[in-house]
Structure formats: structure tokens, C-alpha cells
Amino acid sequence: MSAPLHGGRAIARRLSAHGVSKLFTLSGGHLFSIYDGCREQGIDIVDTRHEQSAAFAAEGWAKATRELGVCALTAGPGVTNGLSAVASAQANSSPVLVLGGRAPAGRWGQGSLQEIDHVPVVRPLTKLARTASSPDEIPALVDEAVRTALTPPMGPVFLDFPLDHVFSELSTSDGLDDVPAAPEPLAAPDSPDLDRAAELLRASERPVVMAGSGLYWARGEDALRRLCDEVEVPVFLNGLARGCVPADHPAFYSRARGKALREADVALVIGVPMDFRLGFGQSFGEETEVVLIGSNAPEARPPRAVAAELWGSVPDALERLREGSAGKADHSRWLSELTAEENDRRVTEDEERSDERAPLHPMRIYHELGTMLARDAMVIGDGGDFVSYAGRVVESYSPGCWMDPGPYG
Predict the structure, then answer these.
(1) Which residues 6+ apart lie within 8 Å of 216 measured at CB?
(2) Which of 4, 46, 78, 323 is within CB 3.0–4.6 Å of 74 for a Cys-Cys bond?
(3) DSSP assignment of 242-277, as one string?
(4) What is the pLDDT of residues 166-212, one digit of tens each?
(5) CATH of span 7-166
(6) What is the per-residue DSSP string for 41-87?
(7) In CATH, which of 3.40.309.10, 1.10.390.10, 3.40.50.2000, 3.40.50.1220 is domain 192-403?
(8) How many separate helices (H) and strands (E) can be counted in the chain?
């Protein structure tokens, strides 16, 4: 005799259909039915010591795999304990599904254990925040949440499930194990802006690429490397984009960024906002023609004028720019200038890297660590000035090797 198809099992079966293999959590009574379902579906339950850790682990999984990260937080303080991680996922565009326990709907407002309406609290931090109104609604709600989290701009979503709903049976199991349709691919940018950007790049004598986490999420690293190889454009990376062009690639630069952005005649800004990390747009020279490239247009307009905006499939946009840059200008002088600047700055850092005084300088610590790390080692940056030194000294050679905390810190 098969086990009753309660709401918790329905949640797990839809998660499994979407390819979810890990659930991060701190065990809580409101979630037991979900755990039952996950065990039956072969979804690994990773138990943590605190809900904040569970939610951050879900974001970490999303960052490392570029897939959906899922956590389950018990009702009340369990959900509120995870809010910092949800805010981080929002700032990083990390696709994270947060499953919340919830006091029983049948006794709502009567003072059940850990009773609080999470949705108004969580809504400002998420793309979607909903409460299941019945057991039968659960499968479609999970599908909608997963689809929303993975649709650019990606980000966190939240669902909570009243205790009586997840322990009640569904009226039907139809479609519970159906494999969901693949999301529609983003269209290639096709506008006068694309022609304008290609024309600017083709005529440029001092081009530069500044790429960030949006390049990583869009899986644009192969297209970017092809562009770099053929157009000979120097590349600077921040955030999760570190490693999308290996640190030993001829096009990769890091120390000369100030000079490059300030003196470039054309800058391709890929998947990175003009926030504090780019001086709110002031890192670029007044005459620099800026081309914005990303999966989707941001809600806020950029803080400075731009020459072109390419929104849609980032790999396709980069391929189109590569194809349109045939007959480009000679960049050898520009590359020589940046290489000289890069080398000069590395020499200046030698004193800090070899400083033997106590307490040890962060640059010395990370320099020594960098000599021992494997090429594919994954490095997790925490925050503050200490990690800023790691960003300078610890090199990245493949996508996903640098787990950047992002703008939320």
C-alpha cells in the first residue's frame, strides 16, 4: 500500500521533477512532511546548525552550480533567521527557492506556535512570495516559483505552506512527476544598438571589457573568450565573473583597471551594474563610449550616458559583436600600455607580498595561500578589506572558483 500523497510529498515530487538534488534546512516540525517526501525522492537533506546557514548554503549551491538552490525554514523565527541570506540572493541575482513552514490555516489568528504572516516580511526581498491556499494548489505553486526564480532577472522566491495543508492529501496525483518544459531561451539582441556597438568596437583603438556576475549567470564565458581572442580586447572581471577568462589568459588584466577604464575609447560593460564598484559610472573616462550588455535591462537607468544597450542573450550578443568587428583597428599599442601598467603595479605589491613583520599583512597571507591552491580550487570570499586583498592576489582560472559575497556584503 502506497503512502498517502500529502502536501509535503507533492512538494518533493515537483522539486525532483525540476532536477533539485539538495535541500538545505534546520530540522523543524512544520517541515517534517517535506522531509518525508525528499527522502522518498532521493533529494539529499543537508541539516545545518542555523537557518541563516541553510539559506546561505542554498545561495552557495546556486552560485557554484548555476542551478536552483533550495532551502526549507521552519515557521516564524526559522523564516526570519534566513532573511539576510534572502537579501544576499536578491542582490546577487541568485536563483533560490525558500520553502517556509507556516502555522495551520485552520487555526490562523488563534495563536498557534510560531504563527506569523511571513509573506509581507519576505515580499520586498523576493521576486515572488506566496502562501499555499490548499493542498491541491501546491504543485502548480512550486512550478511557478521555480520558473520565476530561474527567469532573468534571476533571484530568490518564497513559498510557505500551512501545517495542515502539507499533512493533508491531494485529490489527485496527475502530473506530479511530469518533467517541466525548458524555459524559453532569451532572444539575441536585435536592434540598432547592436549595429552601433559593433561599429564602435570595430573602430576602437582602446577597447576594454568590464564583466561581472551577470556574465557568469548567463553562461557567457565561452563567447567572451572567443571575442577576446579575435578582437584582442583586454578584460577585467569582478564578482562571480572571476575565472570566466583564466588569470593566465593573454587578454586578462587586473591591476591596470583604473587606467584601462579611464582611458578606454569603448567599454563593453557586461553583466555588472554601475554601482559603487564602478564609481557609479565615474570610473570610466568622460569620452568613453559605454556599451551595456546583460540578460535584462535594470529597473534604474545608468548614472551616466551610454552609447548602446544590448539586452537579451549575453552569449549571442557577444558572438554578434565578434562577427561584426572584422577589420578592427590595431590594439597592440594599447595592450602594451596596459601590460606595462600591470607589471609596474605588481612590482609595487612585492613589498607587501614579502612583508615578514608581525602581525602579518593580508597580502602576505593570501600570496602564500595562492601558491598552494590547486588551479581549480574554490575560494569563498567573506567581506571587508581583508577579502579585498584576496581578490587581488588569489587568481581564478575557471568559472565558479571565486564565490564572491556580492554587493550586499
Answers:
(1) 66, 239, 240, 241, 244, 271, 399, 400
(2) 78
(3) TTSS-TTSTTB-STTHHHHHHH-SEEEEES--SSGG
(4) 999 999 888 888 988 888 888 888 789 999 999 999 999 999 999 99
(5) 3.40.50.970
(6) HT-EEEE-SSHHHHHHHHHHHHHHHSS-EEEEE-TTHHHHHTHHHHH
(7) 3.40.50.1220
(8) 16, 13
